[in-house]
Every structure is written in C-alpha cells, then in structure tokens.
Amino acid sequence: xxxxxxxxETGWLKVSDVHTLYYECSGNKDASPVVFLHGGxxxxxxxKDRSFFNPDKYKIIxxxxxxxxxxxxxxxxxxxxTWDLVKDIERLREHLGIEKWHVxxxxxxxxxxxxxxQSHPDRVxxxxxxGIFTLRKSELNFFYQNGTSHLFPEAWEExxxxxxxxxxxxxxxxxxxxLNSVDDQTRLAxxxxxxxxxxxxxxxxxxxxxxxxxxxxxxxxxxxxxxNHYFVNDGFFRDGQLLEVQEIDKxxxxxxxxxxxxxxxxxxxxxxxxxxxxxxxxxxxxxxxxGHSSREKGIAELLVKATDGFADLDI
Length: 315
Prior knowledge:
By secondary structure, this protein is of the alpha/beta class. Helices cover 37% and strands 16% of the residues.
C-alpha cells in the first residue's frame, strides 16, 4: 500500500433534510478520480483507505455513508436505504464536478459499488471489488445463522449470549429488537456483541487491535444498528438482484477486477464465483492465504496492483 497522506480538501454535503455527509479529497487534484465506498454498512472510512491508490495518479475521494463515521446524525436509520446511498454517490460526483470516476469497494462496499454501477453505468470507469457480498438470504444465513458459527464456535457463543435461546432461530431479527431497544444499556451491549462477531471473524489470523474496535461505543452503535437495519430489510433488494443477467448486462462493458480471500468467512468465495459465472469478462483473483480483510497482505497487494493497472485508463 502507498504511504499515508492527508486530504487537501474536506467538506460536508447535505443530501436530505436529515442527513449530511462528510467527504474528503486527497492525492492529485488534477488526476483521474476514484471514489472509495466503505464497508459495513455503517463502518465509515479510515485514513488508511487512501493508501490503496497512487497519490500521484489519482484524485482519491472518500466519504462516510449516511449515519456512519463523521456523517450526521450518527447511527440514524431514517431515510437510510441502499438507494438513498446510490443517490448520495451521484450527488457527491455532481458536487465535485466529476464526469466519470473509478469505483472501489469491499464487502458491503462491493454491494454498493455494484448497485451504483448498475444504476449509473455511464459514470463508472472501472470497478475494483473485494470480498464480494450481494446480500442474498443465503449469504446472510451463512454468516449470522449457520455457517461461520461452525468455524468460530467460541466467538459464536459470545455473539449469541445476549439473545434468549427461544429467539436464536433468527439472529438478525432478534438483534434488531435489541439494537432498537429504548434501554440504552441493552442497545449498546447488543451493538458491541454484534460488532465483535464481525471483527473476530474478518481476518485469517485474528487481530486484537482490530477486534478492539468493537469496544468503542460510538463505532459499535453506528456499525451494528445500520448494518442490522440493512440486513433485516434484505438490503432493499430482490433476493439475488445484483447477480441477475439483466442487471449485469448494464455493466458488462466496465473493466472489473475482484480480489477474494479463499478463507473469507464473512463474505464467502462462493459469491465471488457466482458473480464470475454471470460476468465472465471480469478478472477474479482468489487469494489462497487470506480471509475477509482488505488489510491482509495478499489481498492488499492485489488491490493496489488493480488500482495501479486502471490508473491510466481512458474510457
């Protein structure tokens, strides 16, 4: 990854009567623009996210999605759907006076990247995606109900602990009730348990510093509440919508590179393969010694290689 850099521009974009988004620009203001779409939903951006891009060859644009990171109001679920976020990306593009840009996203960011590209294919120069997630019921079931639990049984016991045994047949729905409880203590305890489950399972070799993020009240509250809100509503998609042929046909002409960890148990490799099957023109890299995180060495190297490859693309 490239060395850390600081933004040359930061700002706020009001996108509705409720929501105002934080955004920033770094790198070369005269170079090819790229928009980074963070994970979660609800995860927010990190300064190191700028480092996937050559700062001499890219104008690097990061923003925190509705309710996430520095955007306000924090953890707000009102007017917060996939299609609101797609509209926000277009508002940001127009606000910055950009005609066409590269799109980069991992995990939920890959979901949003696909939804945005399928909605505005004429605005996308390239796609670099990681940890493919299309929010099908089968994907949610694997991570939150019966799949990853078999591989991380100790972490699973912590995850299910806040939920009464009789409600554990639908963990997303059960958590929804607690994450929207009027009792602050109940809501925050649920948020931390939900967040810790994802932090503990995201890397092939667990990282204690990464897991510790779940202990932050502010991070856990926005991450868990927004993520659960999207998942209990099936991402506001038809099941499998992003993989439908008529949707892929809209973006088939866009150069696309996917980097997928072989042992990703948050967004399993089967979804990346499903996307490759319906969109054979894309390039799929399966990293043999990695899990879900973009910070794992093999994944990070291939993501940077992909952005380097598209840096001079002119379409």
